[in-house]
Amino acid sequence: MWQFIPTLLGVVLLVFFLFNWVGGDPAYILAGKIANPERIEEIRRSLGIDQPYWVQLWIFIKQIAVADFGASWSTNERVAQIFATRLGPSLTVLLPLLIISTVLALAAAMLVAYYRGSLTDRAIMIGCTVGQSISILVYILVFQYLLAYQLGWFPVQGWGGTLAENLLGYAALPILVGVVVSLAPDIRLYRSFFLEEINQDYVRTARAKGLGEGRVMWLHVLRNASIPVITNVMTQIPGLLAGAFLIERFFSIPGIGREVILAVERSDFPVIKAVSVYVAVATMIINLAADLVYRALDPRVQLK
Amino acid sequence: MSLWLLAWRRLLRDRVGVASAAIVLAFILIAAASAAGFIARDWGQEVGVSYAPPGFLGPEIEHERAAAITSGPQEDYGIADPLAEELAEIRARLTGAAGTEARATTLAFGGDKWGRDVVKKAIKGTETSLVVGLAAATLAAFLGTLFGALAGYHGGWLDDFFNWLYSVFTSIPYLLLVLAIAAVLNQKGVLTVILILGLTGWTGIFRLIRAEYLKHKVREYVLAADAIGASDARRMFAHILPNVSHVVLVQLSLHVVLFIKSEVILSFLGFGVGVDTVSWGSMLAEAPSELILGMWWQIAAATAAMALAVTAFSLFTDAVRDALDPRLQ
User: Nearest CA of chain A to the CA of B269: how many Å?
Assistant: First the structure.
C-alpha cells in the first residue's frame, strides 16, 4: 500500500519535468502569435512560472492534493468540470465493450484451446495474427464507411441526450468496432491461460471420475482459467479510458479520450497534466484491487 | 553445437517461420532499396490525374466523379499562378520534351489527390515505418537490457531505483504517455518519433531481462567467472548477456511490431512524421475524405502493405521464439 507514494511522486516528477522543463515556456503558447512582453510577463506571473522550479513543483503538488488543476487554456472550462462531464460517455462505450469482448473472447479461447493443434485452432490463430496486424484505424474507417455511411445501419457519428438513445443508437457501432479490435489479442492471450489449465492434474482427475467433457471444461477449467482473465480485464480499464481516443474521435463521442486528443492538439497542458496524474492514480488503485481480487479467487497466491 | 545453430535448424524446419522470414527479408530489402533511391524515388511525381483510379477498373469508373470534384489545378486560389510560365519552361527544358506533360488517366493501382502513385507511396511508407520500428525497438531493447542488467545483477539501491522508474513509467498508459510527450515536444519528424517510442517503450524488456539476470547471477558459470577474477562489467556483459540474448532478440522483434503500429497512429493524428515524409499513418489520414468519394485504393494500398509486413513480422517472432525455446509451444 505505501509503495504508492514513491510511485505517485515519480509520476508527479515525470509530468512536471515534461511540462515545466522540456515543454518550454507556456506563456508563449498562451499569449498567441502577437505577444507583447508585458502580456507574457503577466501570464508568467499568473501561472507561477516566474518562480524557481521548486516553488513551481510545490504549486503542482498542491494542485494535485486538492484536485484542482485550474482551467483549460483553450476553453477556460474548469479541468475538474471537464472530467466530470466526459466520464459518462466514455463509460457508456467502455463497459458494454469490455463485457461483450471478454465473454466472446473467453468462449472462442475455450473452443480453440479444447481443439488445440487442430486445423480450426491453427486457422483461428493465424486469423488472429492477421487481424491484429491491421491498424485499428482501418477497422474504424472501414466499419464507419460500410456499415454507417453506405448501408445506414448505424448513425455515422454523434451523441444524444439520454442513456438509452446513446447505448442503442450512437454507441452501438463504436462498441462493435471496439469488440472486433480487441477480440484477436484477447483470444490469443486467453487461449494461453486455458492451455495452462487444460493439462493440469485436476482435469485428468475430473475426467477419470467420469465427468462429461462439458462439465470439465465449463466448470473446472473455465473457473481456473478465469482468474488471470479477471485481473487482465481489470488492469485494462485505465488504459482503455484514455486509449479509446481513436474511437471517440471518429464517432464524435464526448469522452475522456477525445478530450486528451483535443488537449494534445491545442497544447492544453493543464488538461494533459490532469489526465496523466488521474489515470496514473486510477492505474495504481486498480492494480492493487486486481491483486486483492486475485488473492481472494486464488488463495495459493501470496502478496509480497 | 551452439544454441544459435540448433535454433537455426529448428527455424528451417518450421515452414511458416521460413515463409514469414522470407517476407520480412523482402520488406527490409524493399525499404533499403527505397532508402538508397533505387525504387520509388519519384514517389512525389504527379504522374496521374487527381484520384486516378486503378487500371483494372478502367478510366471511366469514378473518374468523372473525381474530375467533377477537383476541376482545375489543385492550388488555384482564384488567382493565376505568376510562375506558371517559367515553371513550364523549366520543366520542358528538364525533360527535353515538348512541355506537354501527359497525365495518365489511370494508374496500375490508383493515385491519390495529387495523382501520385499509391504503390510508390506505400513503398516509401514501408521505408519510414520499418526505419521507425527497427530504430525505436533497438533503442528500447538497448535501454531495457542495460537497465535490466544493472538492476538484476547489482540489486540493492540500483534495483530499487530502476523498479521505481519502471512503476512510474507503467502507471501511465503507454499511448497516453506517448501523446503527452508528443504534445510537449511539439515537433514532428522521424527522429522525434523514434526517440519518443524508444524512450518510453523499454519497460517490458527491462522486467524480463532483470528477471533473467536475477536467475543467472547465481549460476555456477558466473561464480566461476568471479573466481578467476572477471570484473562485474565483464560478468554482466561478456558472460551473462550472451546467455540471455535470445530473450532480447524475441523482445526486439515484438517491439518492432508494437512501434510500427504506434507510429501509424501517431502519424495519423498528425503528431508523427513530418508532412514531407510518407508513412502508412499519413496515407491513412488521407483516407476518410477519399472514402466518402468512393476512392478506396489508397487505404487499400496502405492496409495491404501494413497487414502483410506486420503479420509476417509477428509470425516470424513466434517462429524465432519457438526455435530458441522449444519448451514453450
Answer: 9
- Residues of chain A contacting B176 with CB distance shorter than 8 Å: 239, 242-243, 260, 275-276, 279
Instruction: State the nearest Cα–Cα gap between A264 and chain B, in angstroms.
Output: 5
Joined together, the cell numbers standing for residue A184 give: 484477436
Check pLDDT > 70 for residue B284: yes
Q: State the amino acid at position B263 in one-letter form.
A: E
What is the per-residue pLDDT for B253? 86
Spell out which residues of chain A touch residue B174, defining contact as CB-CB under 8 Å: 239
Task: For Cα atoms B199, B202, B203, give the angle at the middle one, nearest 5 degrees.
Answer: 125
User: Contact, B160 vs A268, CB < 8 A?
Assistant: no
Q: Which residues of B touch A252 (CB under 8 A)?
A: none
CB A258 within 8 A of CB A249: yes
C-alpha distance from B314 to closest chain A C-alpha (Å): 7
b/e burial code for range A24-51 (CB count within 10 A of at least 16 → b):
eebbebbbeeeeeeeeeeebbeebebee
pLDDT tens for each residue of A107-165: 898 888 888 888 888 888 888 888 888 888 888 888 888 887 778 787 777 777 777 77
CB contact under 8 A, B182 and A264: yes
What is the distance between the alpha carbons of residues B279 and B264, in angstroms, rounded to a whole number? 7
- Beta bridge partners, B54, equal B107
Cβ distance of B307 and A130 shorter than 8 Å: yes
How many residues are present in chain A?
304
Angle at A225 between CA A220 and CA A226, to 5 degrees: 105
DSSP A170: I
Q: How many A-B residue pairs are in contact by the CB < 8 A criterion?
A: 121
Q: Roughly how many angstroms between the first and final C-alpha of chain B, as a whole number? A: 22
Beta bridge partners of B104: B48
In the three-class reduction of DSSP (H, G, I as helix; E, B as strand; rest coil), residue A71 is classed as strand
C-alpha cell, A26: 507556456
- A135 CB-contact burial (10 Å; exposed 0-12 / middle 13-18 / buried 19+): buried
ipTM for the predicted complex comes to: 0.80
pTM of structure = 0.81
A5 bridge partner residues: none
For the record, the C-alpha cell of B324 comes out as 530458441
Rounded Cα distance, A15 and B233, in Å? 33
DSSP code of B107?
A: B
Neighbours of B278 (CB within 10 A): 26
Cα radius of gyration rounded to whole Å, chain B: 25
What residues in B contact A283, CB-CB < 8 Å? 170-173
Stretch 29-48 of chain B: residues touching chain A, C-beta under 8 Å: none
**B52-99 pLDDT tens trace:** 666 666 655 544 454 445 444 455 556 666 777 777 777 666 655 444
Which H or E run includes A175? helix A172-198
Residues B108-127 have pLDDT tens digits of 666 676 667 777 788 888 88
Q: Which three cell numbers stand for residue A54?
A: 521548486
Do A225 and A194 form a contact (C-beta atoms < 8 A)?
yes
